[in-house]
């Protein structure tokens, strides 16, 4: 296969006109030939800056070198030594800001498609039934992990590899956290990809108990005092949605993005075989501009709605990944930028009939460094709608912090934990991921889970 070393080998995607009407995966992945060709562009740098950009420190040049030689099994061994969820990360990590953002090839041409190669190797391993090696030695100590999102799964996988007895306690009926209830099927297939990577974590010896709400079914203090757990990792995420606090927000037809996506993804409302109700809406506005907003908008579109994203800053400030915005536009999502809702308009029966908005302009930068939006006087207008999906961010649920003695939280209800090893104010209790940082990314949650596993290992060895 002929390649231009300065250009990425293009990857196939479903046609936008077709995929706007189905929930199948958008990106179709590399073939073997394409993966080998893309890997051959890598310079195998001695001082590989890509590794510094990876929060779980995958030996990127080594795995890419194995792909370029066609040794996919060895490539998978290198990947799975550092990451419990390579097929997930290869699909949803913001590589453009991490490994690929640092890639030396990117100085003159396109960076190496590290994420797409990671996805290729993990998919190849799954299709060929190759699994990570279980530990040879077992230790006596027991560790409880709260939450089965990327932070919990990574921490559990790392500890199991070290030989510890690990049990994950998950509040929902299915493990995976945001990977199963938030990110839609068309970006991250659930049974084919997420469930299989969770099976690999189980294959390391990790037990997963679902339908257990820590703080309600049992507390952390009881786990440690009565149930014999020697250490605890909290990876309970940040699943509590925020609202704007504007008039009319209580109307029927206003959803949080979390509820809308959970109905569709976890409860499978998009699939006719399930009877979970969802209100697809005919004219839908999604308020917000992050990845979650793009996922909600693209889900509503696939359910048959005419969808507009309403965001108060300009396109340059959209926090969603560029790839997601590009895909959303290709599929026919409209964007009403520099626009802010001031009121949800409600009909006589208590249902949404529209949204009053104002136009904004960008003023001076605020503390986040982004130019803050300022209302343009006299710019009020109304949008006719039947459904509004609020996607304004989330914060940690205070259930665990309010039921655990001596666990410090900050003003935003995030658990206070040391950055290096996730140690909290309570002895033997570690934390990481969105529960500590607030809503962030899969790979940062995984990096925190991995760091905490090292911290827990040190703690248990030095007791
Ligand atoms: C719609 C959406 C799209 C996203 N897209 C991307 C993306 O493209 N790329 C990216 O990198 N990031 C993305 N993110 C962010 C990313 O998914 C999160 O940062 C990441 O999942 C955080 O991992 P976590 O393990 O800390 O928490 P979570 O994934 O939230 O997992 C926490 C788990 O803990 C469980 N839990 C909570 N409380 C309790 C309790 N008391 N007892 C037992 N279990 C409990 C929850 O049920 C959940 O399963 C997205 C987020 C959303 C919502
Ligand atoms: S920085 Fe880029 S070119 Fe260099 S080893 Fe990493 S992926 Fe390859």
Mean pLDDT: 95
Number of helices: 18
- Rg from C-alpha positions? 23 Å
Tell me which ligands are bound: flavin-adenine dinucleotide, iron/sulfur cluster
Name of the CATH class of the largest domain: Alpha Beta
Strand element count: 18
Describe this structure in words.
- The chain is α/β, with parallel strands linked by helices and 463 residues long.
- It has three domains: 116 residues, Alpha-helical ferredoxin (Fumarate Reductase Iron-sulfur Protein, Chain B, domain 2, Orthogonal Bundle); 165 residues, FAD/NAD(P)-binding domain (3-Layer(bba) Sandwich); 150 residues, FAD/NAD(P)-binding domain, CATH 3.50.50.60.
- The protein contains 18 helices and 18 strands.
- The strands form five sheets. The protein has a five-stranded parallel sheet with strand order 5-4-3-6-18. Strands 8-16-9-10-11 form a five-stranded parallel sheet.
- A hairpin with a 5-residue loop joins strand 12 and strand 13.
- The longest helix is centred in the C-terminal third of the chain and has 20 residues.
- The relative contact order is 0.13.
- The mean pLDDT is 95.
- Bound molecules: flavin-adenine dinucleotide (FAD) and iron/sulfur cluster.
- The site of flavin-adenine dinucleotide has 41 residues, from helix 9, helix 14, helix 16, helix 17 and helix 18.
Topology record:
Blueprint: E1 12-13, H1 16-19, E2 27-29, H2 32-39, H3 49-52, H4 60-68, H5 72-82, H6 86-92, H7 99-102, H8 114-127, E3 142-146, H9 150-162, E4 165-169, H10 178-181, H11 190-203, E5 207-209, H12 220-225, E6 231-234, E7 240-241, E8 254-256, H13 257-265, E9 283-287, H14 291-302, E10 306-310, H15 322-331, E11 334-336, E12 339-346, E13 352-365, E14 371-375, E15 381-384, E16 387-390, E17 394-395, H16 399-403, E18 429-431, H17 434-437, H18 442-461
Parallel strand pairs: 3-4, 3-6, 4-5, 6-18, 8-16, 9-10, 9-16, 10-11
Antiparallel strand pairs: 1-2, 7-17, 12-13, 13-14, 13-15
Iron/sulfur cluster (SF4) binds near residues 44, 45, 61, 105 and 112.
């Amino acid at each position: 296969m002929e390649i231009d070393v300065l250009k990425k080998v293009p990857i196939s995607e479903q046609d936008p006109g077709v995929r706007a009407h189905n929930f199948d995966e958008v990106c179709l992945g590399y073939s073997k030939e394409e993966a080998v060709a893309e890997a051959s562009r890598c310079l195998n740098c001695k001082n590989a800056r890509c590794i510094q950009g990876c929060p779980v420190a995958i030996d990127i040049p080594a795995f890419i070198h194995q792909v370029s030689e066609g040794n996919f099994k060895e490539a998978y061994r290198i990947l799975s030594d550092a990451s419990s969820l390579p097929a997930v990360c290869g699909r949803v990590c913001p590589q453009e800001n991490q490994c690929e953002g640092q890639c030396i090839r990117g100085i003159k041409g396109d960076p190496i498609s590290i994420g797409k190669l990671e996805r290729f190797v993990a998919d190849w391993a799954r299709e060929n039934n190759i699994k990570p090696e279980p530990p040879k030695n077992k230790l006596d100590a027991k560790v409880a992990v709260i939450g089965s999102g990327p932070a919990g799964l990574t921490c559990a996988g790392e500890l199991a590899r070290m030989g510890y007895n690990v049990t994950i306690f998950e509040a929902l009926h299915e493990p995976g956290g945001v990977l199963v209830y938030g990110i839609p099927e068309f970006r991250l297939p659930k049974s084919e990809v997420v469930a299989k990577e969770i099976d690999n974590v189980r294959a390391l010896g990790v037990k997963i108990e679902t339908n257990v709400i820590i703080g309600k079914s049992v507390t952390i203090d009881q786990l440690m005092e009565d149930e014999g757990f020697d250490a605890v990792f909290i990876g309970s995420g940040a699943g509590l949605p925020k609202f704007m606090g504007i008039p009319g927000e209580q109307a029927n037809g206003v959803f949080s993005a979390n509820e809308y996506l959970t109905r569709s993804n976890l409860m499978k409302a998009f699939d006719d075989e399930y009877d979970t109700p969802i209100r697809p809406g005919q004219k839908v506005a999604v308020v917000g501009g992050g990845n979650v907003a793009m996922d909600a908008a693209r889900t509503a579109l696939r359910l048959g709605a005419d969808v507009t994203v309403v965001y108060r800053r300009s396109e340059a400030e959209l926090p969603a990944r560029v790839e997601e915005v590009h895909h959303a536009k290709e599929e026919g999502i409209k964007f009403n930028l520099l626009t802010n809702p001031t009121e949800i308009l409600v009909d006589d029966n208590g249902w949404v009939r529209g949204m009053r908005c104002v136009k904004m302009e960008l003023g001076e930068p605020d503390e986040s460094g982004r130019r803050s939006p300022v209302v343009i006087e006299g710019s009020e207008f109304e949008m006719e709608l039947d459904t509004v999906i609020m996607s304004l961010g989330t914060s940690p649920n205070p259930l665990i912090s309010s039921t655990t003695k001596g666990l410090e939280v900050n003003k935003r209800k995030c658990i206070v934990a040391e950055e290096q090893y996730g140690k909290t104010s309570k002895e033997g209790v570690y934390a990481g991921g969105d529960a500590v940082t607030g809503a962030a990314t899969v790979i940062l949650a995984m990096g925190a889970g991995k760091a905490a596993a090292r911290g827990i290992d040190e703690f248990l060895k030095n007791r």
